[in-house]
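Posting for a labmate who doesn't have an account.
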Amino acid sequence: MGISHFAYSILRNTFIFKGFFKYLSWLEPYLVYSGIQMPLRRYVALISFITISVFIVSMPLFVIVHFIFLKYNLTFSIIASLILSFILTIITLSLMIYFPVFKAKSRLEALEARLPYIISYMTVLSYAGRNLESILAKLAEKGELFGMKEDATRMLRKISILGMDTARMLLEEAKNTPSIICSSLLESLAGIVETGKGLSEFLEQELTNVLRAREAKMREVLNSLSVFMELFVSLVVVMPLVLTIMLSIMATLGGRGLPINPMQLLFLIHFIITPTLAIIIVIMIDSLISKISA
């Protein structure tokens, strides 16, 4: 029995679980597309359990630290510990709530980056005479190459096991997916299934559109990268060099008028401020590149 099942069994009738479940129903599609194999009720119960546990465990620990180690009086220790425990609980709750959102969006960004290859593969199969159900079966079989094995398997399971109509399944998937591009593609495929004609031509045209959109996105990313590189050179290379020359001159003149010693300021610039700026810019560049890299 997992911790989520245990949490659900003891919290399912509590007002905390019911309140969380009422306001977190929007998480369900993100749980599906993040790959978290857990129903919404159990995940909400897990959120409730971990949030309560963090508060219960952190509160006495903070009181002990403030009262015994830091030698504050008991009243102040309790108030400070209550505030810190509340902040820690809110942070934990936020991380638990938005973890599926972050994971789903990262997976969908990777999926959208691979979308030209997926549509190209589907186009080849459709021209070979396969229908959409057969194409989904092939995607479920070869899905690891495109990073959509779980999604294709889930869609195929709804058709073959649950007996759901293909068009209805595609519309349901389009409604639940957080990706606008994938939603539009699935809705269009549902229309093709209902008419029964033009699958190959539609996929070929959709591939052309996706490639054009990807080309435009790559141009946009390259333009943004040039800006980030200029920013990196200015803030990480030029600025420390200029400040080093200025502060060195001021240090030789006595450093009057500065709130701290010029040498201490140089230490802050070279070992704290500049590395921090470099890390921030590198992270921003990496997030930008991840939008187009598969």
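Reply:
Got it, the structure tokens are right above this. The two ends are 36 Å apart (CA to CA).
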